[in-house]
Design brief:
Keywords: DNA-binding, Nucleus, Transcription, Transcription regulation
Structural class: alpha+beta
Mean pLDDT: 82
Domain T-box: 1-81
Strand order of the largest sheet: 1-6
Number of domains: 1
Protein name: T-box domain-containing protein
Subcellular location: Nucleus
Number of helices: 2
InterPro entries: p53-like_TF_DNA-bd_sf, T-box_DNA-bd, T-box_sf, TF_T-box
Length: 81
């Protein structure tokens, strides 16, 4: 349902170790849901629609994803596809 995340990292020093982290946080104060495909006869719209208020934002330790290769050298991260 959700797209894969691809990141390009450039300019790293080859022998320096780096951690790669991703923070996932809400983009709005609302909860959204997918409503299905377009059906003009029934008046349904395709896409995301508001479905209420969002939950409280999680603490930072629950919003962070640490890449399992972290820490790794700049040359390691530069070799990744």
């Amino acid at each position: 349902m959700f797209p894969a995340i691809q990141v390009s990292i450039t300019g790293l020093e080859p022998n320096v170790k780096y951690h790669v982290l991703l923070e996932i946080s809400p983009t709005s104060q609302r909860r959204h849901k997918y409503v299905g495909s377009l059906d003009e006869a029934k008046g349904k719209c395709q896409g995301w629609t508001i479905a209420g208020s969002a939950d409280e934002q999680s603490p930072i330790h629950k919003r962070l994803y640490v890449h399992p290769d972290s820490p790794a050298t700049g040359s390691h991260w530069s070799k990744q596809p």
